[in-house]
Design a protein that fits this description.
- It contains eight helices and five strands.
- Helix 2 crosses helix 4, helix 3 packs across helix 4 and helix 4 packs parallel to helix 5.
- The termini are close together.
- The protein is of the alpha/beta class and 174 residues long.
- It has a five-stranded parallel β-sheet with strand order 2-3-1-4-5, sandwiched between helices.
- 33% of the residues are buried.
- The protein is globular.
Length: 174
């Protein structure tokens, strides 16, 4: 089984993923951004700066395809933590919907702003002219409907402990 964690950056995917893996030790945890960084030898920020978003999104689509070939074909159990924009690629969304159980970790704009404060330098989609809230609001307008449409499960994370969110996911897949 492949459990996929989706949602906007700063919603808690990485933390929930680690805590979920503790609750489901038979599952391997794979962070898609880390997988891309390890394969390319650069950080996501470096890839964006040197090659641009389009090149990164192509790498991301290749990584999703690789995940499905490696893990899907072998039947290994994994927790796959996506980057915030992964599902905006229609082919990624279609592939992940068909082959994984997608959990959308939904957070409000206020929570995202709080969680992402000071992270603009390490988050390429947040860098540049506008203030943090304006950037997040703009990206969420573009992404929220897709996050909800492709999710098999939606979990509201505001004011919740990440361990409780991880437990809810673990309970739902057992």
């Amino acid at each position: 089984m492949i459990i996929t964690l989706s949602g906007f950056m700063g919603c808690g995917k990485s933390t929930v993923g680690r805590l979920l893996q503790e609750r489901l030790p038979e599952f391997e945890l794979v962070d898609l951004d880390e997988f891309i960084e390890e394969g390319d030898g650069r950080t996501i920020a470096e890839i964006f700066a040197e090659d641009g978003e389009k090149a990164f999104r192509e790498m991301e689509a290749d990584a999703v395809e690789c995940m499905m070939m490696v893990y899907g074909a072998t039947g290994r159990d994994i927790i796959l933590s996506l980057g915030g924009g992964t599902l905006m690629n229609a082919e990624n969304a279609k592939t992940l919907m068909a082959n994984t159980e997608i959990f959308y970790l939904r957070a409000t704009i206020d929570t995202l702003v709080e969680n992402l404060q000071g992270a603009e330098d390490s988050r390429p989609m947040l860098s540049g002219g506008e203030d943090l809230r304006t950037k997040i609001e703009g990206l969420m307008r573009k992404r929220a409907a897709t996050y909800e449409k492709v999710a098999h499960h939606i979990i509201d994370t505001d004011g919740r402990d990440c361990g409780d969110v991880a437990q809810e996911i673990a309970d739902s897949v057992r």
